Amino acid sequence: MIDNKKDQRYKVGKKFFIYAPPFKGIRSKSTGEYISRRLQRITPPFRDAKAWQCSVYYFWWEFLRRHEGYHDCCIRGGKGKYKKLYADFGNIHEHDDFWKWWAQKVDDEFYSDLRRGERLFSEPPAGKIELAERSLNNDSNDVLTINIPLEVRTPFLVKQFRKLLKDHEQQVQEVRKVSKAKYPVSSSVRLSSLYQALRVWDIEQEYRKTKKKYEKCDLAGIYVNEILTISDPDGEFKTMRLTIEKAKREGHEEYINHIVQEVRRRKSQSYTRYLTAAENYIRNVGEGNFPSQKK
Fold first, then answer.
1. Distance in Å from the first CA to the final CA of the chain
2. CB-CB contact of 121 with 9 (8 Å)
3. What's the rounded Cα separation, in Å, for the pair 219 and 217?
4. Checking CA distances to 174, which of 60, 141, 212, 231 falls within 20 to 30 Å?
5. pLDDT 10s digit of each residue in the chain, 295 long?
6. Using alpha carbons only, what angle is made at residue 220 by residues 204 and 262, rounded to the nearest 5 degrees?
């Protein structure tokens, strides 16, 4: 058995997240690029997004702030239907600074070394590399039990160990993609889609009674195909691809009203899809489940 002092050498690794956590975003003075390789691979959800807004956990916080029931729970100091969720997420309306919430120290004997964001979303410590009994019969898919011939030199052992992981790559990937965090991310959704749904929700709250859906679609900046394929019933041409501007420019005024109505219909439908998605995200985030659209 390994004693406690020597056992400190067999570390379990750093805290990690399956999905990229929020970063402050340090940039290189020479290139202007983010130093973090993980940030370099992430497509920003919107123009001029801060580094820490390029994380699903940031949007988790934003959508929870729009949950009416949880807002009431915060006002009541954590009492009511959402008190268990409140015990973990705290008063997210206490201030508007995401970083203050994410990095807040949590008074908990089991998580004294973790900030709030780490406590909620980081993976638990990985299993230790340790000696196994010869009679051990481990059937877990999370573990590979191997015998190491001690007479083999270390460089060759490392090479063989990497080859072993490569040979079991599928099993390794299957285990690593399953989150064991206290609050795992429930599905993979583009950050840009989360941002668009959030923006639609906010616009809906502001202009619910004063603007039509296609107008709110424009305010939200949702892209909609405004090209309409026109078929000629008289047989002069088979089809034409027209926008409102092109129809005006080429003298096809008879099609303008039809194009306008069709484009508005598309915008209304697109806006409704994002609004429905936002409603589902907000409902489910109140159950500790994000980003999910399941009813």
1. 50
2. no
3. 5
4. 60
5. 334 444 444 445 567 888 888 988 776 667 766 666 666 777 889 988 888 899 999 999 999 999 999 999 999 999 999 999 999 999 999 989 999 999 988 765 555 567 899 999 998 876 666 555 544 555 567 777 777 776 667 777 777 777 777 777 777 677 666 778 899 999 999 999 999 999 999 999 999 999 999 999 999 999 999 998 887 766 566 677 888 888 888 888 888 999 999 999 999 999 999 999 999 999 999 999 999 988 7
6. 95
- Inter-CA distances, 126 with 25, 122, 141, 175, Å: 26, 11, 14, 12
Q: Residue 248 has which token pair?
A: 């005006």
pTM across the whole model: 0.79
Residue 115 C-beta-side C-alpha neighbours within 13 Å: 12
Buried b (16+ CB within 10 A) or exposed e, 6-32: eeeeeeeeebebbebbbbeeeeeeeee
| Extents of the domains making up the chain | 4-121, 130-178, 191-285
Distance between CA atoms of 91 and 71, rounded to whole angstroms? 8
The tokens describing 3, both together, are 């004693």
Q: Three-state SS for 84?
A: helix
Amino acid at site 249: R
